[in-house]
Amino acid sequence: MTPLLALLGLIALVGHGSLWLGLVNFVHGTMLPRWSMKVFMLGGLVFTLAAPIVVLATVLGANAAARPALLAAHPVWAGYLALVTAIGGFYVPLWIVRRRHRRPPAILRSQSSVLYSIGSSASVVEQHRGQGRFFLGLPGNEAYDLDVADKTLEIQRLPPGLEGLSIVHLTDLHFTGRIGRGYFERVVELANESEPDLTVVTGDVLEHDDCFAWIEHTLARLRSRLGVYFVLGNHDLRIDTARLRRTLIDAGLIDVAGRWIVLESGGETLLLAGNERPFMPSAPDMSNAPATSLRVLLAHTPDQLPFARRHHFDLMLAGHTHGGQIALPFIGPVLSPSLYGVRYCGGTFHVRPTVLHVSRGVSSEQPVRFNCPPELARLTLVAPPTAQMPSADRATLAGA
Protein backbone atom coordinates (compact mmCIF):
# COMPACT_ATOMS: atom_id res chain seq x y z
CA MET A 1 0.00 0.00 0.00
CA THR A 2 1.39 3.39 -1.02
CA PRO A 3 1.71 6.20 1.55
CA LEU A 4 -0.94 8.23 -0.29
CA LEU A 5 -3.43 5.37 -0.23
CA ALA A 6 -2.71 4.80 3.46
CA LEU A 7 -3.34 8.50 4.19
CA LEU A 8 -6.60 8.51 2.24
CA GLY A 9 -7.64 5.38 4.08
CA LEU A 10 -6.97 7.02 7.44
CA ILE A 11 -8.93 10.14 6.42
CA ALA A 12 -11.83 7.98 5.24
CA LEU A 13 -11.75 6.05 8.52
CA VAL A 14 -12.02 9.29 10.52
CA GLY A 15 -14.93 10.44 8.34
CA HIS A 16 -16.61 7.06 8.64
CA GLY A 17 -16.48 7.11 12.44
CA SER A 18 -17.60 10.75 12.59
CA LEU A 19 -20.60 10.09 10.34
CA TRP A 20 -21.85 7.24 12.48
CA LEU A 21 -21.23 9.07 15.73
CA GLY A 22 -23.36 11.90 14.36
CA LEU A 23 -26.13 9.48 13.39
CA VAL A 24 -26.08 7.88 16.84
CA ASN A 25 -26.38 11.30 18.48
CA PHE A 26 -29.27 12.25 16.21
CA VAL A 27 -31.20 9.01 16.75
CA HIS A 28 -30.83 9.36 20.52
CA GLY A 29 -32.33 12.82 20.25
CA THR A 30 -35.54 11.35 18.83
CA MET A 31 -38.33 9.63 20.72
CA LEU A 32 -37.95 6.24 19.05
CA PRO A 33 -38.74 3.22 21.25
CA ARG A 34 -35.85 2.28 23.49
CA TRP A 35 -35.48 -1.15 21.89
CA SER A 36 -35.16 0.36 18.41
CA MET A 37 -32.43 2.73 19.57
CA LYS A 38 -30.54 -0.22 21.04
CA VAL A 39 -30.87 -2.10 17.74
CA PHE A 40 -29.61 0.95 15.85
CA MET A 41 -26.73 1.36 18.30
CA LEU A 42 -25.70 -2.28 17.95
CA GLY A 43 -26.10 -2.30 14.17
CA GLY A 44 -24.24 1.00 13.86
CA LEU A 45 -21.39 -0.27 16.04
CA VAL A 46 -21.07 -3.46 13.99
CA PHE A 47 -21.11 -1.50 10.72
CA THR A 48 -18.67 1.12 12.04
CA LEU A 49 -16.15 -1.55 13.01
CA ALA A 50 -16.76 -4.10 10.26
CA ALA A 51 -17.01 -1.87 7.19
CA PRO A 52 -13.39 -0.60 7.29
CA ILE A 53 -12.13 -4.17 7.78
CA VAL A 54 -14.11 -5.45 4.79
CA VAL A 55 -13.01 -2.57 2.55
CA LEU A 56 -9.38 -2.86 3.64
CA ALA A 57 -9.33 -6.61 3.07
CA THR A 58 -10.91 -6.21 -0.36
CA VAL A 59 -8.53 -3.46 -1.47
CA LEU A 60 -5.43 -5.20 -0.17
CA GLY A 61 -6.54 -8.45 -1.77
CA ALA A 62 -6.57 -6.86 -5.21
CA ASN A 63 -3.48 -5.78 -7.13
CA ALA A 64 -2.87 -2.08 -7.65
CA ALA A 65 -3.93 -2.12 -11.30
CA ALA A 66 -7.26 -3.74 -10.50
CA ARG A 67 -8.29 -1.34 -7.70
CA PRO A 68 -9.87 1.36 -9.93
CA ALA A 69 -11.96 -1.29 -11.67
CA LEU A 70 -12.92 -2.69 -8.28
CA LEU A 71 -14.33 0.64 -7.14
CA ALA A 72 -16.10 1.14 -10.48
CA ALA A 73 -17.76 -2.24 -10.05
CA HIS A 74 -19.11 -1.20 -6.66
CA PRO A 75 -20.45 2.36 -7.16
CA VAL A 76 -22.29 2.42 -3.82
CA TRP A 77 -19.09 1.67 -1.91
CA ALA A 78 -17.18 4.11 -4.10
CA GLY A 79 -19.73 6.84 -3.34
CA TYR A 80 -19.65 6.08 0.37
CA LEU A 81 -15.84 6.18 0.40
CA ALA A 82 -15.92 9.55 -1.36
CA LEU A 83 -18.42 10.86 1.20
CA VAL A 84 -16.50 9.75 4.29
CA THR A 85 -13.20 10.91 2.78
CA ALA A 86 -14.72 14.37 2.29
CA ILE A 87 -16.05 14.34 5.86
CA GLY A 88 -12.72 13.22 7.29
CA GLY A 89 -10.63 15.51 5.14
CA PHE A 90 -12.62 18.73 5.34
CA TYR A 91 -15.51 18.74 7.80
CA VAL A 92 -13.84 17.10 10.80
CA PRO A 93 -10.73 19.38 10.81
CA LEU A 94 -12.95 22.43 10.29
CA TRP A 95 -15.22 21.31 13.16
CA ILE A 96 -12.25 20.81 15.49
CA VAL A 97 -10.76 24.23 14.64
CA ARG A 98 -14.11 25.98 15.16
CA ARG A 99 -14.64 24.20 18.46
CA ARG A 100 -11.18 25.09 19.71
CA HIS A 101 -11.69 28.76 18.86
CA ARG A 102 -15.21 29.03 20.21
CA ARG A 103 -15.51 31.65 22.93
CA PRO A 104 -18.07 31.91 25.74
CA PRO A 105 -20.99 34.14 24.81
CA ALA A 106 -20.93 37.74 25.98
CA ILE A 107 -23.95 37.12 28.20
CA LEU A 108 -21.78 34.88 30.42
CA ARG A 109 -20.48 37.77 32.50
CA SER A 110 -18.43 35.66 34.91
CA GLN A 111 -17.89 32.07 36.01
CA SER A 112 -15.90 30.25 38.65
CA SER A 113 -15.76 26.68 39.89
CA VAL A 114 -14.86 24.76 43.00
CA LEU A 115 -14.28 21.01 42.70
CA TYR A 116 -15.49 18.84 45.58
CA SER A 117 -14.11 15.30 45.72
CA ILE A 118 -17.14 13.79 47.39
CA GLY A 119 -15.89 10.24 46.80
CA SER A 120 -13.17 10.78 49.40
CA SER A 121 -15.85 10.26 52.06
CA ALA A 122 -15.82 6.67 53.33
CA SER A 123 -19.57 6.77 54.00
CA VAL A 124 -20.18 7.55 50.32
CA VAL A 125 -17.84 4.91 48.94
CA GLU A 126 -19.29 2.18 51.14
CA GLN A 127 -22.78 2.74 49.73
CA HIS A 128 -22.21 2.19 46.03
CA ARG A 129 -22.98 -1.22 44.59
CA GLY A 130 -23.18 -3.41 41.49
CA GLN A 131 -21.55 -2.04 38.34
CA GLY A 132 -20.77 1.15 40.23
CA ARG A 133 -17.96 -0.60 42.10
CA PHE A 134 -16.24 -1.43 38.83
CA PHE A 135 -16.74 1.89 37.03
CA LEU A 136 -15.91 4.04 40.04
CA GLY A 137 -12.67 2.11 40.45
CA LEU A 138 -11.41 3.08 37.00
CA PRO A 139 -8.32 5.32 37.20
CA GLY A 140 -9.15 8.92 36.37
CA ASN A 141 -12.92 8.51 36.67
CA GLU A 142 -14.37 11.86 37.84
CA ALA A 143 -17.87 10.62 38.69
CA TYR A 144 -17.44 11.72 42.33
CA ASP A 145 -15.67 15.02 41.58
CA LEU A 146 -18.54 17.51 41.72
CA ASP A 147 -17.93 20.83 40.00
CA VAL A 148 -19.89 23.54 41.83
CA ALA A 149 -20.04 26.19 39.13
CA ASP A 150 -21.05 29.79 39.86
CA LYS A 151 -22.11 31.67 36.73
CA THR A 152 -23.41 35.19 36.22
CA LEU A 153 -25.77 35.43 33.24
CA GLU A 154 -26.81 38.64 31.54
CA ILE A 155 -30.54 38.64 30.72
CA GLN A 156 -31.62 41.33 28.28
CA ARG A 157 -35.12 41.91 29.67
CA LEU A 158 -34.35 41.43 33.35
CA PRO A 159 -36.37 43.95 35.36
CA PRO A 160 -34.72 45.86 38.24
CA GLY A 161 -36.65 43.97 40.91
CA LEU A 162 -35.11 40.67 39.77
CA GLU A 163 -31.53 41.93 39.55
CA GLY A 164 -29.29 39.36 41.25
CA LEU A 165 -31.91 36.58 41.24
CA SER A 166 -30.10 33.34 42.12
CA ILE A 167 -31.02 29.92 40.72
CA VAL A 168 -29.62 26.51 41.63
CA HIS A 169 -29.86 24.20 38.63
CA LEU A 170 -29.81 20.45 39.29
CA THR A 171 -30.34 17.82 36.62
CA ASP A 172 -29.66 14.17 35.75
CA LEU A 173 -29.34 12.78 39.25
CA HIS A 174 -29.96 9.19 38.09
CA PHE A 175 -30.73 7.51 41.39
CA THR A 176 -29.74 3.92 40.49
CA GLY A 177 -27.85 2.73 43.55
CA ARG A 178 -24.60 2.52 41.59
CA ILE A 179 -23.55 5.75 43.30
CA GLY A 180 -24.36 5.83 47.01
CA ARG A 181 -27.04 8.02 48.57
CA GLY A 182 -24.42 9.89 50.59
CA TYR A 183 -23.14 11.52 47.41
CA PHE A 184 -26.54 13.04 46.67
CA GLU A 185 -27.01 14.13 50.27
CA ARG A 186 -23.79 16.13 49.93
CA VAL A 187 -25.00 17.58 46.61
CA VAL A 188 -28.14 18.86 48.35
CA GLU A 189 -26.07 20.39 51.16
CA LEU A 190 -23.97 22.28 48.61
CA ALA A 191 -27.09 23.40 46.74
CA ASN A 192 -28.59 24.84 49.93
CA GLU A 193 -25.37 26.54 51.04
CA SER A 194 -25.86 29.42 48.62
CA GLU A 195 -29.40 30.08 49.92
CA PRO A 196 -30.82 30.48 46.39
CA ASP A 197 -33.96 32.34 45.42
CA LEU A 198 -35.05 29.46 43.20
CA THR A 199 -34.06 25.79 42.83
CA VAL A 200 -34.94 23.73 39.76
CA VAL A 201 -34.53 20.06 38.82
CA THR A 202 -34.67 19.28 35.10
CA GLY A 203 -35.26 15.55 34.91
CA ASP A 204 -33.76 12.05 35.04
CA VAL A 205 -34.27 11.82 38.77
CA LEU A 206 -34.75 8.12 39.50
CA GLU A 207 -34.67 4.83 37.63
CA HIS A 208 -34.70 2.11 40.29
CA ASP A 209 -37.57 1.33 42.65
CA ASP A 210 -35.20 0.76 45.57
CA CYS A 211 -34.21 4.44 45.41
CA PHE A 212 -37.66 5.97 46.01
CA ALA A 213 -36.81 6.18 49.72
CA TRP A 214 -33.79 8.33 48.87
CA ILE A 215 -35.97 11.31 47.97
CA GLU A 216 -36.84 11.89 51.63
CA HIS A 217 -33.14 12.21 52.48
CA THR A 218 -32.11 14.23 49.42
CA LEU A 219 -34.46 16.28 47.23
CA ALA A 220 -36.98 16.76 50.05
CA ARG A 221 -34.28 18.75 51.86
CA LEU A 222 -33.74 21.28 49.08
CA ARG A 223 -34.54 24.82 50.21
CA SER A 224 -34.98 28.10 48.33
CA ARG A 225 -36.88 31.32 48.89
CA LEU A 226 -39.31 30.94 45.98
CA GLY A 227 -39.61 27.15 46.05
CA VAL A 228 -38.21 24.05 44.36
CA TYR A 229 -39.58 23.11 40.91
CA PHE A 230 -39.13 20.12 38.61
CA VAL A 231 -39.77 18.43 35.29
CA LEU A 232 -38.99 14.79 34.47
CA GLY A 233 -36.80 13.21 31.77
CA ASN A 234 -36.63 10.12 29.60
CA HIS A 235 -35.00 7.87 32.23
CA ASP A 236 -37.87 8.63 34.60
CA LEU A 237 -40.08 6.61 32.24
CA ARG A 238 -38.27 3.44 33.28
CA ILE A 239 -40.12 3.32 36.59
CA ASP A 240 -43.65 4.22 37.73
CA THR A 241 -43.59 7.83 36.56
CA ALA A 242 -46.87 8.75 38.23
CA ARG A 243 -45.53 7.44 41.53
CA LEU A 244 -42.35 9.48 41.08
CA ARG A 245 -44.36 12.68 40.51
CA ARG A 246 -46.46 12.02 43.61
CA THR A 247 -43.38 11.29 45.70
CA LEU A 248 -41.64 14.48 44.60
CA ILE A 249 -44.76 16.57 45.21
CA ASP A 250 -45.23 14.99 48.64
CA ALA A 251 -41.58 15.90 49.34
CA GLY A 252 -42.40 19.57 48.76
CA LEU A 253 -41.28 20.00 45.14
CA ILE A 254 -43.60 21.70 42.62
CA ASP A 255 -44.34 20.03 39.27
CA VAL A 256 -44.41 22.50 36.34
CA ALA A 257 -44.57 19.92 33.52
CA GLY A 258 -46.91 21.06 30.77
CA ARG A 259 -47.93 24.28 32.52
CA TRP A 260 -46.74 27.69 33.56
CA ILE A 261 -46.99 29.51 36.85
CA VAL A 262 -46.27 33.09 37.86
CA LEU A 263 -44.03 33.93 40.79
CA GLU A 264 -43.55 37.32 42.43
CA SER A 265 -40.27 38.71 43.72
CA GLY A 266 -39.00 42.22 44.31
CA GLY A 267 -42.22 43.72 43.04
CA GLU A 268 -41.80 41.95 39.68
CA THR A 269 -43.32 38.82 38.13
CA LEU A 270 -41.52 35.78 36.80
CA LEU A 271 -43.17 33.15 34.60
CA LEU A 272 -41.82 29.63 35.13
CA ALA A 273 -42.85 26.85 32.71
CA GLY A 274 -42.01 23.18 32.13
CA ASN A 275 -41.57 21.21 28.90
CA GLU A 276 -40.96 17.43 28.95
CA ARG A 277 -41.08 16.83 25.21
CA PRO A 278 -40.28 14.73 23.25
CA PHE A 279 -40.31 12.09 25.98
CA MET A 280 -43.70 13.00 27.41
CA PRO A 281 -46.51 15.02 25.80
CA SER A 282 -46.27 17.81 28.32
CA ALA A 283 -45.48 21.24 26.93
CA PRO A 284 -47.14 24.38 28.24
CA ASP A 285 -49.80 26.20 26.25
CA MET A 286 -48.39 29.71 26.07
CA SER A 287 -51.28 31.23 24.11
CA ASN A 288 -52.85 32.86 27.16
CA ALA A 289 -49.69 33.39 29.21
CA PRO A 290 -49.40 36.89 30.70
CA ALA A 291 -46.81 39.29 29.37
CA THR A 292 -44.57 38.96 32.39
CA SER A 293 -41.21 40.63 32.75
CA LEU A 294 -39.18 37.42 32.73
CA ARG A 295 -39.81 33.96 31.26
CA VAL A 296 -37.88 30.87 32.39
CA LEU A 297 -38.34 27.41 30.84
CA LEU A 298 -37.40 24.10 32.43
CA ALA A 299 -36.80 21.33 29.90
CA HIS A 300 -34.95 18.05 30.09
CA THR A 301 -33.29 18.24 26.68
CA PRO A 302 -31.72 21.25 24.93
CA ASP A 303 -33.56 20.11 21.80
CA GLN A 304 -36.53 22.14 23.05
CA LEU A 305 -34.63 25.35 22.34
CA PRO A 306 -36.83 26.14 19.28
CA PHE A 307 -39.89 26.03 21.58
CA ALA A 308 -38.18 28.42 23.99
CA ARG A 309 -37.26 30.85 21.23
CA ARG A 310 -40.68 30.68 19.59
CA HIS A 311 -42.36 31.62 22.86
CA HIS A 312 -39.83 34.30 23.81
CA PHE A 313 -38.34 32.66 26.89
CA ASP A 314 -35.50 34.70 28.32
CA LEU A 315 -33.80 31.72 29.98
CA MET A 316 -33.99 27.97 29.35
CA LEU A 317 -32.47 25.40 31.71
CA ALA A 318 -31.80 21.85 30.50
CA GLY A 319 -29.63 18.76 30.95
CA HIS A 320 -29.87 15.29 29.36
CA THR A 321 -26.50 15.35 27.53
CA HIS A 322 -24.20 14.94 30.58
CA GLY A 323 -21.67 17.13 28.77
CA GLY A 324 -20.84 14.03 26.73
CA GLN A 325 -19.56 12.24 29.89
CA ILE A 326 -16.21 11.64 28.18
CA ALA A 327 -14.32 14.56 26.63
CA LEU A 328 -11.38 13.61 24.43
CA PRO A 329 -8.15 15.64 24.66
CA PHE A 330 -8.12 18.54 22.19
CA ILE A 331 -11.35 17.35 20.50
CA GLY A 332 -13.80 17.43 23.42
CA PRO A 333 -17.01 15.37 23.72
CA VAL A 334 -18.20 13.36 20.73
CA LEU A 335 -21.28 11.58 22.09
CA SER A 336 -24.40 13.55 22.99
CA PRO A 337 -28.02 12.31 22.76
CA SER A 338 -29.29 15.36 20.90
CA LEU A 339 -30.62 16.31 17.49
CA TYR A 340 -27.88 18.95 17.52
CA GLY A 341 -25.09 16.49 18.33
CA VAL A 342 -22.57 18.08 20.69
CA ARG A 343 -23.44 21.69 19.77
CA TYR A 344 -25.39 22.22 23.02
CA CYS A 345 -23.68 19.43 24.92
CA GLY A 346 -23.00 21.56 27.97
CA GLY A 347 -22.46 25.18 28.92
CA THR A 348 -24.11 28.52 28.25
CA PHE A 349 -25.39 29.70 24.88
CA HIS A 350 -27.18 32.77 23.56
CA VAL A 351 -29.56 32.05 20.70
CA ARG A 352 -31.71 35.16 20.60
CA PRO A 353 -33.92 35.83 22.38
CA THR A 354 -33.09 32.90 24.68
CA VAL A 355 -30.15 32.28 26.98
CA LEU A 356 -29.69 28.51 27.23
CA HIS A 357 -27.89 26.83 30.12
CA VAL A 358 -27.18 23.11 29.72
CA SER A 359 -25.77 21.47 32.83
CA ARG A 360 -23.49 18.43 32.67
CA GLY A 361 -25.68 16.91 35.37
CA VAL A 362 -25.10 15.58 38.85
CA SER A 363 -24.68 11.92 37.88
CA SER A 364 -25.40 9.40 35.10
CA GLU A 365 -26.81 5.92 34.55
CA GLN A 366 -23.32 4.48 34.27
CA PRO A 367 -20.97 6.38 36.64
CA VAL A 368 -18.24 7.00 34.07
CA ARG A 369 -16.80 10.48 33.52
CA PHE A 370 -13.47 11.45 32.08
CA ASN A 371 -12.43 15.08 31.59
CA CYS A 372 -16.08 15.92 32.22
CA PRO A 373 -16.94 16.11 35.94
CA PRO A 374 -20.55 16.28 37.16
CA GLU A 375 -21.94 19.74 37.77
CA LEU A 376 -24.06 21.65 40.24
CA ALA A 377 -24.79 25.06 38.68
CA ARG A 378 -25.49 28.20 40.72
CA LEU A 379 -26.70 30.96 38.42
CA THR A 380 -27.04 34.66 39.14
CA LEU A 381 -29.09 36.82 36.75
CA VAL A 382 -28.09 40.40 35.98
CA ALA A 383 -29.29 43.02 33.52
CA PRO A 384 -27.12 44.46 30.73
CA PRO A 385 -24.96 47.40 31.89
CA THR A 386 -27.12 49.98 30.10
CA ALA A 387 -30.26 48.63 31.80
CA GLN A 388 -28.70 49.44 35.16
CA MET A 389 -28.21 53.11 34.26
CA PRO A 390 -30.68 55.85 35.16
CA SER A 391 -33.18 56.35 32.33
CA ALA A 392 -31.68 59.78 31.38
CA ASP A 393 -28.23 58.24 30.97
CA ARG A 394 -29.62 55.40 28.81
CA ALA A 395 -31.30 57.94 26.55
CA THR A 396 -28.04 59.86 26.21
CA LEU A 397 -26.15 56.66 25.33
CA ALA A 398 -28.78 55.64 22.76
CA GLY A 399 -28.50 59.03 21.02
CA ALA A 400 -24.70 59.04 20.93
Protein model, in words:
The protein is α/β, with parallel strands linked by helices. The chain folds into 2 domains: 3-100, no CATH class; 108-386, 4-Layer Sandwich (Purple Acid Phosphatase, chain A, domain 2). It is built from 11 helices and 15 strands. It has helices at 3-28, 34-61, 67-73, 75-100, 122-125, 131-136, 181-193, 214-217, 241-250, 305-310, 391-399, and strands spanning 108-117, 145-154, 166-170, 198-202, 228-231, 254-255, 260-265, 268-275, 294-299, 315-318, 327-328, 332-333, 347-351, 354-358, 375-382. Strands 1-2-15-3-4-5-6 form a 7-stranded mixed β-sheet, with helices on one face. Strands 7-8-9-10-14-13 form a 6-stranded mixed β-sheet. Helix 8 links the parallel strand 4 and strand 5. It is globular and about 80 Å long.
